[in-house]
């Protein structure tokens, strides 16, 4: 390995630093985007049970917000459930955008590395070509310098491509994973909002039915003792 680094020349060091950074970001994102970290199983059911038992105190909602990104969205639904539908939707969407921003953290950097790594490899290729042309002189060429220039050019090109391919793969994979999580969070928020709205809608429907019975001809006959 040391001989490879020596033959690749100094341009290989930026590539190595880039590869270490890329690996660290990928590991961090894979750890942070685990399902248990983002959308714990059964959390929606727990929240609905908490509401049914009237345990949705401000302290409980604050704990829910700290639980996970899904908990953060559901906590916003609970806080804004008494607002008109459009205002509630806007508040929850704002929280969703903030959650999406957090989930996408560092993924853009991985994509940038996938683009920059081949350029760094190309830079190493140019440095190697300069060494190759520098090996020629009117009295003849220096075989050792020529071989070193070729090594620098080829090693850096290969390392740049080697870094870019997995970086691009993980960039696409992580973006898809975040999109899938955001779809799940949106569905969970919609489901929770519908369930929370149902108890409030039921009394309203009962009042409408009573009004219809009271003011309909049949209802009037039932209410008037002289009929």
UniProtKB/TrEMBL annotation:
Major location category of this protein: membrane
Protein name: Flagellar motor protein MotA
GO cellular component, one term: plasma membrane
Protein family (similarity comment): Belongs to the exbB/tolQ family.
InterPro entries linked to this entry: ExbB/TolQ_transport, MotA_ExbB_proton_chnl
Membrane topology: Multi-pass membrane protein
Region of interest (Disordered), residue spans: 208-227
GO biological process per UniProt: protein import
Keywords of this entry: Cell membrane, Cell projection, Cilium, Flagellum, Membrane, Protein transport, Transmembrane, Transmembrane helix, Transport
Cellular localization per UniProt: Cell membrane; Membrane
Transmembrane segments: 12-31, 106-133, 153-174
Boundaries of every MotA/TolQ/ExbB proton channel domain copy: 67-186
């Amino acid at each position: 390995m040391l001989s490879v680094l020596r033959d690749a020349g100094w341009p290989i060091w930026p590539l190595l630093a880039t590869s270490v950074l890329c690996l660290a970001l990928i590991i961090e994102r894979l750890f942070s985007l685990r399902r248990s970290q983002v959308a714990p199983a059964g959390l929606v059911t727990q929240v609905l049970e908490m509401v049914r038992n009237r345990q949705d105190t401000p302290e409980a909602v604050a704990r829910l917000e700290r639980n996970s990104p899904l908990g953060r969205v559901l906590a916003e639904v609970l806080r804004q459930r008494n607002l008109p539908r459009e205002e509630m939707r806007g508040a929850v969407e704002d929280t969703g955008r903030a959650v999406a921003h957090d989930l996408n953290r560092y993924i853009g950097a991985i994509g940038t590395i996938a683009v920059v790594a081949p350029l760094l490899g190309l830079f190493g290729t140019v440095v190697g070509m300069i060494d190759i042309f520098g090996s020629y002189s009117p009295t003849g060429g220096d075989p050792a310098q020529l071989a070193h220039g070729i090594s620098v050019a080829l090693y850096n090109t290969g390392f740049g491509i080697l870094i870019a391919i997995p970086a691009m793969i993980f960039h696409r994979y992580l973006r898809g994973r975040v999109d899938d999580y955001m779809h799940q969070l949106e569905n969970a928020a919609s489901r929770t909002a519908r369930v929370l709205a149902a108890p409030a809608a039921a009394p309203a429907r009962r009042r409408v039915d009573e009004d219809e019975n009271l003011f309909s001809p049949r209802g009037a006959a039932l209410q008037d003792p002289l009929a």
